[in-house]
Design a protein that fits this description.
Blueprint (H helix, E strand, L loop, with lengths): L4 H21 L10 H6 L2 H13 L2 H10 L5 H9 L4 E10 L4 E5 L4 E5 L15 E10 L2 E4 L4 E3 L5 H16 L9
Length: 182
């Protein structure tokens, strides 16, 4: 249901360095020449602002790759390349299973099996099912989220809950759970 500790650290290291680049480029940092180590100590709001700046300007990733391509490992390039295949949307977080967190994309009616990064998602969310705003992306043959979840707690009727469970069972019976985006 989540990445290994090594996978999590590698993803986080790569992603946080990219967010630092975005924060500097978009002048989000509290001080323009802030060191990377100081950026790490900032609260999540600054990192979230950098993530949102990246979402609104897809050229930032290309700029980062152009500048740092020779300094990035093949694994780091692969992680960053995953953002080009990412899906940013509001998902219905249906449930957590032994292997996956189940996200329903209501726009295209697809259900994704998403791995958590470090902490199980059911420990980060106040209720399941609920709506979450997230970016999901490929990572080593799996689907992960980018580390930021926006939760919209929602009350569901008993009929809605039964309908969701039936949809989940149908997807599983038809083997249509999407577990990779590569």
């Amino acid at each position: 249901m989540k990445l290994t500790t090594q996978e999590y650290r590698e993803y986080l290291k790569t992603h946080i360095r990219f967010l630092y680049f975005v924060a500097r480029k978009c002048e989000i940092l509290p001080t323009p020449k802030m060191a990377f180590e100081d950026f790490l100590d900032l609260d999540m709001n600054v990192k979230f602002a950098a993530r949102n700046a990246f979402l609104s300007d897809d050229t930032l990733l290309d700029k980062y790759l152009k500048i740092f391509k020779n300094r990035l490992s093949a694994s780091e390039l692969d992680i960053l390349g995953g953002f080009k295949k990412s899906i940013s949307n509001s998902f219905l977080f249906l449930k957590t299973t032994k292997d996956y967190n189940i996200f329903l994309d209501r726009e295209n009616e697809k259900i994704y099996g998403v791995k958590a990064l470090g902490d199980p998602l059911d420990t980060l969310i106040s209720q399941i099912p609920t709506f979450v705003t997230a970016i999901i992306l490929p990572f080593r043959g799996k689907i992960i989220y980018d580390g930021f979840l926006g939760e919209t707690p929602t009350k569901f009727t008993k009929e809605q809950l039964v309908s969701m469970e039936l949809l989940y069972k149908a997807v599983m019976e038809e083997n249509k759970l999407i577990t990779h985006l590569d």
